[in-house]
UniProtKB/TrEMBL annotation, chain A:
This is Dipeptide ABC transporter ATP-binding protein. It holds the Pfam family oligo_HPY. It comes from the Bacteria. Keywords: ATP-binding, Nucleotide-binding, Transport. SMART domains: AAA. Belongs to the ABC transporter superfamily. Gene3D superfamilies: P-loop containing nucleotide triphosphate hydrolases (3.40.50.300). It comes from Zhenhengia yiwuensis. Residues 6-256 form the ABC transporter domain. GO terms for biological process: peptide transport; transmembrane transport. One of its GO terms (molecular function) is ATP binding. Transmembrane segments: none annotated.
TrEMBL record, chain B:
Keywords: Cell membrane, Membrane, Transmembrane, Transmembrane helix, Transport. Its main location: membrane. Residues 122-320 form the ABC transmembrane type-1 domain. InterPro entries: BP-dependent_transpt_permease, MetI-like, MetI-like_sf, OppC_N. The lineage of its organism: Bacteria, Bacillati, Bacillota, Clostridia, Lachnospirales. This is ABC transporter permease. PANTHER family: D,D-DIPEPTIDE TRANSPORT SYSTEM PERMEASE PROTEIN DDPC-RELATED, OLIGOPEPTIDE TRANSPORT SYSTEM PERMEASE PROTEIN APPC. It is found in: Cell membrane. One of its GO terms (cellular component) is plasma membrane. The keyword Coiled coil does not apply. The keyword Chaperone does not apply.
Length: 324, 333, 388
């Protein structure tokens, strides 16, 4: 296969809405409604969006922690969705996940070494004799004290717990790591430590990341390519420099302008979006963003815009650029 | 609240870290439990009750069914006739005797030593408690575990079954079973096993519901998702992650359940459908209070078993409460 | 080797025993202290003269003076707020910045006298509140009097809008209740009218419709608007906003910040804004207070603090946040973590994480001093400039 480690095509995930006594399916929440992107080997794809836009579902579905409703995910020339349970378990170590909440993602009844090493033993990553020293070396790489191996999670702070999570993921020698808001629950000074750690590990081992976050500034810092999600769709996707220099979609622009800048002298012309994200169970017709868009045209209300390449690998789905 | 904050941000200086004692979650629970004075009182009560019931009989020469007779002021028992014949004329049953040196709590109306019967009654009550709770847990955990882990149709079926079991009124069932047993002439010694079986079968629904709920919420926890992402075998996920995390709740409802089962047994025995005479149980010992004369005149006959029931149930509840607070400090207040 | 480990074990055991003893002692002492404070709090009839005071500067709405709020836990005393002095001028916004556990929330709770008892107690200091009828010291004000002040005169907006609303009552009912509680003389129709007006004020278009909604029917942003409406419903003079936008998305955060600024103008209140997001601070605040481990490390006007940060911690905070448009290869990160709150060092609390340490830093804890007219720093780096 080419330079891509992960190719996601038309990924869909619908959650059925059930009602009545016999739990009849009356509709679907289209959490992810056909999104496509590729992750190049050793690079980072950032996925940005607000809560409820389906970005977490993308991460979980492409790892097949939830069954998808359509589309395909090619990983190392294998279609993840077509693997049997046994085959799937065999490739699990290659695709790992880091969670947002460092408190609920660690089992409270297990010592740290066991949490990190559980998968190592399951998949025989290293010979038995080297097991303990291997775990310790992984812990050291993640900035943990190796002698903390026998301690329990309740003794660690949020930042340290997130390091344990990262250690658990990299102990399996993965190729792709899905980072689901890994720093949103942490303090600013700890955030920087974790982001730096993730970058260092990428440099050393060549991991590819899918970095999911709502924080544009963090995504800009760590990603090579960025996709912006709104209500289950990618509305814009481009290499980082291109996207941040030249955002095209009105939603992306609004997101940018909404970020508060830590500088009191800057008084920005803020684009304030009206209203809230519509319910994904009942999305607006046409372009899903038209209810909050400042540049809404007649066509936006009926026809869904096409997702097109405008050069420089800059993909946008918006009618504003139909004539270009 | 504040204490937790301390725990989370507890960063020991590195040089002493090696010597620091590793605190396991179990030890934390223990510490919190031992700090609870009421729970300690509960443990003390229960230990005393166990010693009293299971070791007590070793220190007395009287048996559970030993009947005491008296003739001309000389007492002898059915075990040890002392050369006298109970059938002789002039021999009376030494019933409703006042507390004395020979019978610390006196004798009941059939002339049996109350203290000794209290010990044997305790054995039966505690045994019934353990067996019934064990049965409830076994059935409940298996059914609830299956429902929670597999979900879907199986879950639906099991939960409807739970609903049905919740609707069955226990008391009428016990009455019916009791009269059936009488009609078919089931031997007295088997009755107690049938009693335990029925109480166990009627009581698993609550456990199943709790286990299912726990597993459903655990499955959504991120660390369970992580075990799947790691590619852990399902059997290992259940054994190493699900069960240990359901354990605390199970221990708590088991201790609390002990109390209520003992109470239930007592009330069945009181009604005459529980542990049959001449077997002693606290419940059927209290039963004598139906006789107005005994109620008025002989406090020593019915008060001790009642008090034992009260103490034991209280003990189990104290321990259960203490355990719950210890497992989940946020539940407090 | 084995002999040594045995020795070590012995020492360890002795240490543990000692620790246990110490813990018992601590908890005994704690109980004594707590009892004393609780007794003080529970007094029924307090003469108003006891808590009346005068403001140092009549233009301030709140003057927090050398506040100490401690938590007496079994592990030891946690000095959550350790000598904090903040002034909030009338009509201005003061932002309290810091990371979790630095004591910023406890400071705000102290102002409301809502510190979680019995372990948490205000130990020392004064909080002077410029009340219409004359200034009072909130620390000494009895609970019965505080109930008039809370909500009525000082309002609080919480971080989590879902848990601060009661899920079983309608929005309208809950706001009505607050108004009724503080204005018992109002008629029911008037109350409803005012509630709807309040909802309109916070930018809810369908106010009549929302009046009959339950909290779960609203989105996070809407709920936060309702919370703001509720806290504004009694015309407060002073609003404490505790991380009002942390749980919200950026686009919604922008809406709410806009709203807060707007409302402040409309009702002419002062705001104490508590947040960890420096971007929000820069946008909202006139004055900034940076807290670290229960103490103020830097204090000044927003301009001064952001454009000319002096304390290494403030600098680190500003540098460690990636900013859109500014590409850096590696983020600056403050090494280490916050010290253990039970056993704080007796030198500068930030020394172990600081990369600008001087020999002096091993000495006394630096005091907060003026380095220019509207800028205070607690750091030995500026000792020579200080004292003017």
């Amino acid at each position: 296969m080419s330079e891509n480690i992960l190719e996601v095509k038309e990924l869909k995930k619908y959650f059925p809405i059930k009602a009545g006594v016999i739990q009849r399916v009356v509709g679907h929440v289209k959490a992810v409604d056909g999104i496509s992107f590729n992750i190049k080997k050793g690079s980072t794809f950032g996925l940005v969006g607000e809560s409820g836009c389906g970005k977490t579902t993308v991460g979980r579905t492409l790892l097949r922690l939830q069954e998808s409703s359509g589309g395909s995910v090619m990983f190392d020339d294998k279609d993840v969705f077509k693997l049997s349970n046994k085959q799937l378990r065999a490739i699990r170590p290659d695709m790992q996940l880091i969670f947002q909440d460092p408190y609920s993602s660690l089992s409270p009844r297990m010592p740290v070494g066991e949490i990190i090493g559980e998968g190592v033993r399951e998949h025989n990553i290293v010979p038995k004799e080297e097991y303990r020293s291997y775990i310790m070396s992984i812990m050291e790489k993640c900035g943990l004290q190796p002698h903390h191996i026998d301690r329990y999670p309740h003794e660690f702070s949020g930042g340290q717990r997130q390091r344990i999570c990262i250690a658990r993921a990299i102990a399996l020698k993965p190729k792709v790591i899905v980072c689901d808001e890994p720093v949103s629950a942490l303090d600013v000074s700890i955030q920087a430590q974790i982001i730096n750690l993730l970058k260092d590990l990428q440099e050393e081992f060549g991991y590819s990341y899918l970095f999911i976050s709502h924080d544009l500034s963090v995504v800009e810092h760590i990603s090579d390519e960025v996709g912006v999600m709104y209500l289950g769709n990618l509305v814009e996707k481009a290499p980082k420099e291109e996207l941040f220099k030249n955002p095209k979609h009105p939603y992306t622009k609004a997101l940018f302008s909404a970020i508060p800048v830590p500088d009191p002298t800057v008084k920005m012309n803020r684009i304030i979006l009206e209203g809230d994200i519509p319910s994904p169970a009942n999305p607006p017709s046409g372009c899903k963003f038209h209810t909050r868009c400042q540049h809404c045209m007649e066509i936006c209300k009926t026809v869904a815009p096409e997702y097109r390449d405008y050069g420089n690998e800059h993909f946008v789905a918006c009618h504003l650029y139909d004539n270009e | 609240m504040a204490e937790e904050k301390v725990l989370q941000t507890n960063n020991q200086p590195e040089e002493v870290a090696n010597l620091e004692k590793i605190v396991t979650p179990g030890q934390l629970v223990m510490k919190r439990f031992l700090r609870n004075k009421l729970a300690i009182a509960g443990v003390v009560i229960l230990v005393c009750m166990f010693l009293f019931s299971f070791l007590g009989p070793l220190f007395t020469s009287y048996g559970e069914y030993t009947i005491f007779f008296v003739k001309d002021g000389v007492e002898f028992s059915s075990d040890d006739h002392k050369g006298m014949d109970p059938q002789e004329s002039g021999v009376k049953i030494n019933g409703k005797a006042k507390p004395s040196k020979a019978h610390l709590l006196g004798t009941d109306k059939d002339g049996r030593d109350i203290l000794v019967r209290l010990m044997y009654g305790g054995r039966i009550s505690l045994l019934i408690g353990f067996v019934v709770v064990g049965l409830q847990l076994a059935v409940g955990v298996i059914m609830g575990g299956i429902a929670g882990y597999y979900g879907g149709v199986i879950d639906n079926l099991i939960m409807r079954l739970v609903d049905i079991f919740y609707c069955i009124p226990t008391l009428p069932v016990m009455l019916i079973v009791s009269s059936i047993m009488v009609a078919y002439g089931v031997p007295q010694e088997y009755k107690i096993y049938i009693l335990m079986l029925i109480m166990g079968i009627l009581g698993w629904a609550g456990v199943a519901r709790l286990v299912r709920g726990q597993i459903l919420s655990l499955r959504e926890q991120e660390f369970m998702v992580a075990t799947e992402a790691i590619g852990l075998h399902p059997a290992k996920r259940i054994m190493k992650h699900l069960i240990p995390n359901v354990m605390p709740q199970l221990i708590v409802i088991a201790t609390m359940g002990m109390g209520s089962v003992i109470l239930a047994e007592a009330s069945y025995s009181y009604l005459g459908i529980g542990v049959p005479f001449p077997l002693a149980s606290w419940g059927n010992m209290v039963n004598t209070v139906t006789d107005p004369i005994i109620m008025r005149e002989y406090l020593n006959i019915w008060f001790p078993p009642g008090f034992c029931i009260l103490l034991t149930v209280l003990g189990f509840n104290f321990v259960g409460d203490g355990l719950r607070d210890a497992f989940d400090p946020k539940m407090k207040r | 080797m084995s002999g040594m480990t045995a020795e070590m074990k012995k020492i360890k055991k002795a240490e543990q025993k000692e620790a246990k003893l110490r813990m018992k002692q601590i908890s005994k002492e704690n109980n004594k202290i707590i009892k004393k404070f609780e007794k003080e709090k529970k007094r029924k009839k307090v003469d108003p003269s006891e808590y009346q005071t005068t403001m140092e500067n009549p233009d301030n709405i709140i003057e927090i003076d050398n506040l100490h709020t401690y938590f007496f836990t079994d592990m030891g005393t946690v000095k959550s707020v350790n000598g904090v002095s903040i002034e909030v001028p009338k009509g201005k916004t003061v932002a309290l910045v810091g990371e979790s556990g630095c004591g910023k929330s406890v400071t705000s709770l102290s102002v409301m006298k809502l510190v979680q008892g019995p372990t948490g107690q205000i130990v020392d200091g004064a909080i002077r509140y410029n009340r219409k009828g004359g200034a009072v010291d909130i620390v000494k004000t009895p609970i019965s009097e505080m109930q008039h002040i809370r909500g009525n005169e000082i309002a609080m907006i919480f971080q989590e809008p879902m848990t601060s609303l009661n899920p079983i009552f309608t929005i309208g009912y809950q706001i009505d209740e607050t108004i009724k509680l503080h204005r018992p003389d109002m008629k029911d129709e008037d109350i409803k009218k005012q509630t709807i007006e309040m909802l309109k004020l916070v930018g809810i278009a369908r106010a009549e419709g929302i009046y009959d909604c339950y909290p779960h029917e609203l989105s996070g942003g809407m709920r936060q608007r309702v919370m703001i409406a509720m806290s504004l419903s009694c015309d407060p003079q002073f609003i404490i906003a505790d991380e009002p936008t942390t749980a919200l998305d950026v686009t919604i955060q922008a809406q709410i910040l806009d709203l807060l600024r707007d409302i402040k103008q409309k009702i002419d209140a002062s705001i104490l804004l508590i947040t960890h997001d420096l971007g929000v601070v820069a946008e909202m605040a006139d004055y900034v207070v940076v807290m670290y481990a229960g103490k103020i490390v830097e204090q000044g006007t927003a301009h001064e603090v952001f454009l000319n940060p002096k304390h290494p911690y403030t600098m680190g905070l500003i540098k460690s946040k990636p900013a859109v448009g500014k590409v850096v290869d590696r983020l600056y990160s403050i090494p280490g973590a916050v010290p253990n709150p039970v056993s704080m060092p007796n030198y500068c609390f930030f020394k172990d994480r600081c990369d600008k340490c001087l020999a002096k830093c091993n000495g006394d804890i630096p005091e907060l001093r003026y380095i220019s007219e509207d800028h205070k720093v607690a750091c030995h780096l500026y000792d020579s400039k200080g004292g003017k």
